[in-house]
Amino acid sequence: MNIFKYALNKVSKIVNNETGLILANLRGASGLTQRQVAERMSANQTRVSRIEAGDGDDTDIEAYVTAVGTPEAQAFGELLRLNWTHLPRPSLRHPDLNTLVAVEHGLDRVRAFLEDGQVPTVLAGQAQLLDRRLEDAGRYLLSLDHEVVYVGEIGVGKTTAACRQAGLVLDGATAADLKGMLLDTGGGRTTLCDVRVETGEKFALTVEPVSDEEIYKLVGEVCKSVFEKLAGEASTTTPDYKPAEEVERALRNMAELPRPARARKGATTAPDPASDLAAKFTSLDAFSAEFAARLSLWRRSRRSVEFDGIDARAGRQWLRSTFIEINNGRHDDFSLPDRITVTVPFALVGDTGLSIAVIDTRGVDVSAVRPDILSHMNNPRAVTLLCSKWGSAPDPSSQALLTHITETNADAALLDRVAIVALARVGDALSMRQDSGESAEDRDEGYDIKLGQVDDALQKIGLAGIEAFAFDASADEPSALTTFVLHRIASVRQTQARAAEATIAAIDQMIGNRAEAEALAALSTVSGNLDRFANRQANLRGARRPAHERLLTAVMTLHARTIWAATRRAGRFWNFDAFQYLGDGAAAEAKVRSSELVGGLIAIIDSDLDNIELVSAQGFLMQVRANVAQWEADFVNAARHHAAAVYFQPLSRAQDLWDACEHEYGLGMGAYREGVAGRLRAWFEERVELREELERRVARAWITSFIVPLKQTAGQGEVSGTLPILPSDVGQEG
Length: 734
Hints:
The longest helix has 36 residues. By secondary structure, the protein is of the alpha/beta class. It has a nine-stranded mixed sheet, sandwiched between helices. The two termini are 46 Å apart.
């Protein structure tokens, strides 16, 4: 048997076992025994037993359902007979099975309508819009995969909270002492990289390593810091060359040059083996070469490791010790991790029927506006928990991140996927006071006071409505945090389910409108309004600010060492990516440029919704209104993409520019960031042609991402006016 047939047989067996189990439950609910069902089927009990074990064919199952005879059994029989032609067949235990069945039927109706060949023009665009919206909602619900992402400043305790919530502990009975976490926890600067934890068959770890080129750059920075300190050049005003503490720790351990433990008061500090090694060389390059050689990267080729035993507690012990070794650079077979995937043989967020992974991000150092964090937040299947210390929740980095997101994204659902978690420690809740000055009487009241303060802080920055939760990892039951997480995921899924239901209702209304002249006239009026708007607004007004302004602001704001590290990497550093800021700058400007026009379209739609003569078109109008947000989000994301595409090659290859920016760091001239910002500004302003090409691309993206879909929905295919033609981008849409 080839592997394809084996896979099909395995899937078929799973489906049959599932069917058999449900049939047995239906029989049990009916009060019938296997013998009674067998008598009604004119069969023997062995046949009934085989069917319930998953060995029945379609004829057997049909006879079994008829024999049980209850309404529930008959409904199940109809479900089994359903031919899934538009969506993949879901599990019979899928939590959204009823909605998916309705989506399948809805897609069947709307596609049969489109294939008719006699569809009035005024309905064709509407039908295509409804088809896309319904399939998108169905495919979202079909997938059971979701992520819970923990984000927080260094030392806030997010890793501990994640471990407690997900059951990543050695012993649940003693986990409140916070000493038995399976991931590496400590007082901060412990998590080396993104750590993804997911459910699988056994305990295992998979490592995606940092590239050798990047490792050698990091080694050079560690060595420069050590070498200058050895030469006596370091002082409180000396620039900081070394990478993040957790990275240096791992590299030193890999090179067997660990940092000495800090001496207690009055004791002599142990010698630093890296300094001792540096003293043997007369040049930084020679020292760096020796340090790099000691890493032995050529033999650190392993990417995964599994636990071979069957004892669950031993597996947890193995996972904890192995993870700590890899995270700290102490495992001889693994290179410096860029991402670690941890697999555990248990559910991380309860027995929900969903497949939920937990992601612990690297601690936020100054700014949370990082490519990795933004990528998680833009994932429509991820819920992001912004963790803050009790006293500062929501802390400045969380507020800055949320503000950045709202300025540079048009995804209306993004903030629904975000929550604030205030992490408490012993005594924090009872230390809270009411406005009257009275202390909280108990923990719950203290939590309520804190969450009220969080709401007030969010309201001040225009972000009222974001959910918040208080949690003490040492005192609270982790199930409370799990319940909160599940509510956030359920809310996101319910939004999709409601969207599907509304779309199905609009499909039914559309099909009903087909034969009614009055309804067709109403739709013609609505479509004409939409088409006229599209023709009038095909051209965007000019940009106020160039995309690079947001990048220059970041250069002036972030830590000078971070900027220097980025210049050594042609603008792309894990903690600061120039091209991300360029993209975000273009996206923010695109959102500003489109918002007034989008607001005008919404006003037209709302006016038509209030028009009693257009009541038969209300379902269609509501669907268009819902889709406007997606079109705008597509346009904003297209602008982000085009900015990075236009500038990437010219800027990443501007080696003279980056060398000049790097060189000025540490020369004692002062105002390093101002100098970098000035050089970058001059570079951008000298390249007018790049800015003009970006403007052409953005103008084209507005038409292809917003105007064309709107006209297609209105039953029109052509845009009045001239579509910007890009010699380097013919045929591509925004």
